[in-house]
Amino acid sequence: MIRPFEKPIYVTQPLLPDKQALVDKIDEIYASKQLTNGGPQFLKLKSELQKYLGVPHVSLFCNGTLALQLAIKALDLTGEVITTPFTFPATPHSLVWNNITPVFCDIEPATFNIDPEKIEALITDRTSAILPVHVFGNPCRMNEIERIAKKYHLKVIYDAAHAFGVKYQGKPIGTFGDISMFSFHATKSFNTLEGGALTYADPSLTEKLYYLKNFGIIGQEAVITVGTNAKMNELQAAFGQLVLERIDQEIADRKRLTELYRERLSGVRGITLLPILDAIEYNYQYLPILVQPEYGLSRDTLFEKLKEYNVLARKYFYPLCSDLACYRGQANARSGDLTTARRVAREILCLPLYGELAEPIIKDIVKIIKYLTKNQ
Ligand code: T4K
């Protein structure tokens, strides 16, 4: 008999900076009296992230969603954009905020990323771009996606919200496509409380993005475009600098804990772990499993039973975006071939994972998962 945990075990807990170091940073902010609008903390984080992410250009934002919305705007996308339904609603929402129709494409069973084989059939004369997501930090098949984009003169924006620090064949993930978006939300391995970034190679985007996130203001007396307010403030940037000092240790801890889960869960019938692809440097941001029929209990039953043990796993991403009330009326959401996405959304469960999670807790979570399948 396994007893429930005394306190909830969350799917994640944020990586926090050293408290005294944060107080020192706050002293600096007090002394400067600059709280936002591109102050010294912002500039420092920007240059540190450019280095860490290994990208030619980076632009910082108050959150990932606004960053994505403005990336779409900066590339002047219109009409339809092909994306995945297996993502957080922020992905298709960012298109709709730009008056663009998201066209949902099925995903690959091995990675849960958009299936490049199914993209071409969805291209119409209204298509302006492809918006793939590196789901759970596993890179999409970027060579294939970019080959299609080139053939049809489409832009590519990667939603890299989950992919902070990931490299593919030694190349930083933020160097692919026209623009990549990173989320620095509290639930991400690297966080600035809330925050986000865009990375890109085209230097002309720097000015465009600056105006878009700062009301379109140029100087004190002119506004050249209808921008919004999406700036990252000084406290976010200071927090981010300190979190960045700890990120490599965090990733190493998550790797160790992921290996423990993998070792303990291997051989549990009906529980499948997401493969970590060859040729990538991974960030271990999530611990997704598929709960398949051979396990005996459905994903929903396992989710509810884990809750009874105070293990608060999450169904990222269920329901599919194409099944949400705001999208399911769309023709492509109703009739599109989303067979793999539907199955994965039915089977997916993200187990708790964060650097401070104690190994005995993981051992007990796995014991519970094994106990439940034996004692149904
Ligand atoms: N694209 C993709 C593919 C994304 O996954 C996301 C965000 C975005 C775009 C948009 O980026 P942002 O605009 O957010 O920068 C969470 C996050 O809010 C969201 O950022 C994230 N994806 C998504 C996958 O997960 P919820 O609704 O699950 O969050 P919440 O508040 O339920 O948090 C989950 C657990 O984390 C809690 O049970 C406890 C723990 N937690 C959470 C917070 C906020 C903490 O311990 N401390 C905290 O401060 O969406």
- In total, the number of strands is 17
Task: Please summarize the sheet with the most strands.
Answer: 7 strands, mixed
Low-confidence stretches: none
Shape: globular
Strand content bin: 15-25%
The run of helices and strands is: EHHEHEHEEHEEEEEHEEHEEEHEHHEH
Alpha-beta classification: alpha/beta
Tally of alpha and pi helices = 11
Report mean pLDDT, rounded to a whole number: 96
Distinct ligands, ions and cofactors found in the model: ligand T4K
> Over the alpha carbons, how many angstroms does the gyration radius reach?
21 Å
Strand order of the largest sheet: 2-10-9-6-5-3-4
The portion of residues assigned to helices is: 25-40%
CA-CA gap between termini: 13 Å
Short description:
With 376 residues, the chain is of the alpha/beta class.
Detailed description of the structure:
With 376 residues, this protein is of the alpha/beta class. 37% of the residues lie in helices and 16% in strands. It has helices spanning 19-32, 40-53, 64-74, 90-96, 142-152, 204-213, 234-265, 299-308, 331-335, 339-347, 359-374, and strands at residues 9-10, 57-61, 80-83, 101-104, 127-131, 155-159, 167-168, 171-172, 179-183, 196-200, 217-218, 222-223, 271-273, 280-281, 287-291, 311-312, 348-351. It has a seven-stranded mixed β-sheet, with helices on both faces. A three-stranded antiparallel β-sheet has the order 8-7-14, with no helix packed on it. Strands 13-15-17 form a three-stranded antiparallel β-sheet. A hairpin with a 3-residue loop joins β11 (217-218) and β12. α3 packs across α4 and α3 (64-74) packs across α6. The longest helix has 32 residues, at 234-265. The chain is globular and about 70 Å long. The model has no long low-confidence stretch (mean pLDDT 96). The site of ligand T4K has 24 residues, from α3 and α4.
